[in-house]
Write a structure and sequence with these properties.
The protein is of the alpha/beta class. The protein has a single domain, classed as Glycerol-3-phosphate (1)-acyltransferase (3-Layer(aba) Sandwich), CATH 3.40.1130. Its EC number is 2.3.1.51.
Length: 390
Amino acid sequence: MGLVQWLKGQFLCQLIICYGFLVSGLLVNLLQICTLPLWPINKQLARRINCKLGYSLTSQSVALLEWWSGTEVTFYTDPADYQFYGKENAIIVLNHNFEIDFLCGWAFCDRFGVLGIHHILSRCLLLKTHWRRTSNGRDLGNCPPIPLKASKCLAKKELSYLPVIGWMWYFLEMVFIKRKWEEDKRSFVQSLQNLRDYPENFWFLLHCEGTRFTEEKHQISMEVAEKKGLPKLKHHLLPRTKGFWVAVQNLRGTVAAVYCCTLNFRNNETPTLLGVINGKKYHPDLYIRRIPLESVPEDEAECSSWLHKLYQEKDQFQEDYSHTGYFPGPIVTPLRGPWALINWIGWTCLLLYPLYLLLVQLVLSGSILTILATVAFCSAATERYGSVCR
Ligand SMILES: CC/C=C\C/C=C\C/C=C\C/C=C\C/C=C\C/C=C\CCC(=O)SCCNC(=O)CCNC(=O)[C@H](O)C(C)(C)COP(=O)(O)OP(=O)(O)OC[C@H]1O[C@@H](n2cnc3c(N)ncnc32)[C@H](O)[C@@H]1OP(=O)(O)O
Ligand SMILES: CCCCCCCCCCCCCCCC(=O)OC[C@@H](O)COP(=O)(O)O
């Protein structure tokens, strides 16, 4: 095992990563709260600032996935569709089987600039074009318009209470639901309507299955499929169609396409967040199909059948993948930008400095007892953590 791989497995390194994420997250939350007075004055500016703040947090987990654990998503898609990615608003329909599917989603977003900021930095720092100054919606600088992007999702209400991530999503105008239609319908429609004048291009993620796949849930949902006379699915739960239909209806004219995304991992890997933090490399494959929104029926019943048919196709892709290890279509490799890593290193350096001062103070305090107690605590924690991970 190389030194770098050994370091990745060390509790102290992982503790530093989690410390950095949590403290920078709370700082981001605080800065987001500071934007509150701006909302009534200049809502679009407040939204843009929140997107950038969101990027500085979310991209840390992309850096963790791609640079720390070395996991790279392999993208399968039709090259004719590829040209649209990152340049239009879209609804993303994704299977929900893996603990780190959201991380792979963010990595996908980042490759196409939909996570937040890197296009601006690329242009301003790498290509040396002028900073885009906007006023009354016009470009005043002489660089071409820069696409500004954001990722959104439909998530269960409980996630909005999570410190750091949930609070950040609140400011990013994620759509939260209680998964009880009667209670959700008003706020769901309102949240979708709010996205109609969102100043950034966005991708809106919908897990139509409504919950993560387990064998037990699969069995129950296939009983529902049987009662409804629908073909059984092997790799997916039966999709809930109401949320998809409402999203499509409310985002028509705003969103150009549905991206049907099917994610799987090679060699039957069962990836975990802890594994990623431990520096374990996984092998995700993501198949993306672009379906123009006009081909999704407007009528609720027809839209429902359309979605069921889509899931039957997705199920077939997964079945073929389980035999061949491949999705259809050529592999495309969008470039990995350096910004997620630069942002992560920046935060880590900034937040490690107070820790370093604390350490110096500890050593200078000269108290052997305190130093020994600290070393003993760290060793015990490392040992305990090591036995949990093994
Ligand atoms: C690799 C990634 C690629 C791309 C990613 C790209 C971009 C990423 C972008 C952004 C990322 C940003 C952040 C993401 C990060 C992390 C967060 C990720 C996910 C969050 C996870 C979640 O929270 S998932 C849970 C929330 N989502 C949903 O629930 C959506 C699906 N549900 C619905 O749409 C529902 O319709 C509803 C919730 C809106 C309403 O549900 P309700 O039940 O009240 O009404 P319905 O009409 O839908 O249901 C009643 C009908 O259902 C039938 N029924 C009963 N039991 C079942 C069953 N087990 N399965 C299926 N159907 C069932 C029942 O019979 C009723 O049928 P009727 O015919 O009588 O209507
Ligand atoms: C640099 C360190 C980075 C550390 C990264 C940590 C990031 C934590 C982000 C948490 C994001 C939470 C996303 C959770 C998705 C989720 O919650 O899925 C489950 C639900 O669908 C189904 O729930 P249910 O139906 O109730 O079982």
